Amino acid sequence: MNRNEIKEKVAPPQEAVATIPEKKVKLEIEKNRIRRGLYLTGGILALALAILGIAVPGLPVTPLALLSAFLFAKSSERLYNWLLSNRILGPRIRNYQRRKGVTRKGKLGIMLFMTVMVLFSSFVVIQIIPIRIVILSMGVIGMVVVWFFVPTALDDPAKVENEDETK
Questions:
Q1: Axis-axis angle for helices 61-75, 77-85 (nearest 10)
Q2: SS3 sequence of 76-114
Q3: Residue 152 has what DSSP assignment?
Q4: Which of 3, 35, 41, 55 is 20 to 30 A from 79 in CA distance terms?
Q5: Contact (Cβ atoms closer than 8 angstroms) between residue 118 and residue 136
Q6: C-alpha 164: how far from its chain's center?
Q7: What are phi and psi of 76, to 5 degrees?
Q8: Do residues 88 and 106 touch, judged by C-beta distance below 8 A?
Q9: What's the rounded Cα separation, in Å, for the pair 142 and 149?
Q10: Which of 147, 57, 59, 161 is CA-nearest to residue 103?
Q11: Rounded to the nearest 5°, which phi and psi values hold at 20?
């Protein structure tokens, strides 16, 4: 027996085990085909609206991209990974995941933009009073949702780690 044959008998080849980095999001693909199809359809619709929102003022891009990522995480690992690697929408989603929310400055920017668009729509575009009231009411509800229900981002994890190392 030569040396290689002895190694194979003593230590059989082991299977390669892939380790998943801690930062990788665990996908929970729906097992029910009907639900998975509904999640997929919703994800495609949300993605289409997010892409449309790039060109249409007032249509929120990031929330729709986040919704699309959530729905793809439940329906298609391939589409989820594609969305995260997309050069336009991917950084927005990864930043939200990394920071666990939107910064206060980002929230104020969102609310300022919403205010301008709602006021413009209500007083310049729309002439019917009941519709103006509906748009203004929806704007107020949107602001309450952004301020109180959208998670406020944690400090940048990279900065926090660097500060911990220096202490």
A1: 150
A2: CHHHHHHHHHCCCCHHHHHHHHHHCCECHHHHHHHHHHH
A3: B
A4: 55
A5: yes
A6: 28
A7: -150, 110
A8: no
A9: 10
A10: 147
A11: -95, 125
Structure-token match 């926090």, residue found = 160
Please answer whether residues 83 and 93 qualify as being in contact, where contact means their C-beta atoms are separated by less than 8 angstroms: yes
Cα dist from 74 to 31, 82, 129, 159, whole Å: 9, 14, 42, 32
DSSP secondary structure letters along 34-54:
HHHHHHHHHHHHHHHHHHHHH
Please, are residues 147 and 130 in contact by the beta-carbon 8 Å criterion? no
At 52, list the tokens: 């449309």
The greatest distance separating any two alpha carbons of the chain, rounded to the nearest whole angstrom, comes to: 94
**How far is the C-alpha of 89 from the C-alpha of 73, rounded, in Å?**
15
Residue 91: what residue type?
P
The answer to whether 82 and 54 have CB atoms below 8 angstroms apart is no
pLDDT in tens, 32-68: 889 999 999 999 999 998 888 777 766 777 788 888 9
